[in-house]
Amino acid sequence: MSQMTFFVDLNKCIGCRSCEAACALNWGTKPGASWRSVGTMESGNFPDFTRLYLSVACNHCEEPACMYACPVNAYTKRPDGVVMVDPDRCIGCKYCMWACPYGVPQFDEEAKVVTKCHFCAPLLDQGEAPRCVASCPYEALDYGPKFEVVARHPDATQNAPMMPDPSITKPNILFRLPEEAPPAESFRRVDAPGRKAEQTAARRAK
Questions:
Q1: CA–CA separation, 45 vs 48, rounded Å?
Q2: Is 144 in contact with 128 (CB distance < 8 Å)?
Q3: What tens digit of pLDDT does each residue of 88-122 get?
């Protein structure tokens, strides 16, 4: 089976966070443990500045650092490439959280286990779209087998501002950037402190 892949069009995302809300409502994630996160970033200074919104979840990497770091084999990768974590095997050690350069695994303080985006696997198995994709009012998100996503979006790239080097884990996420966007390294996060992905990128930029 072909690897499932997310696509994010930064030209269309307006930061409404419908994707965040749909994910949380459908899967009952706890406050502070969102499986999808929308970040706000800017380049330049008012009045001459560029603002972009970036919606990200688990990237279901080719080489998932979370899976390699887990000492109890709680992580598995399905034939379609979706990376799953088994809460019944998880011991809450958080090694996966430290290993993931994107800050994807989220710790459930109540259950004392790690959870994360599973690409809406139960819906995929029924032929339905992930809730984040289906809820976007501007069609900024897309998904599918990688070869299909690439065919629909031939101008897509693996690189986006505030994201770590894709060579680290080979993430399965593609982006469309504005044609005249400023250099990626010129962007800064301007909302609440972001996930590890933004923190990692910021450290490398210094």
A1: 5
A2: no
A3: 999 999 999 999 999 999 999 999 999 999 999 99
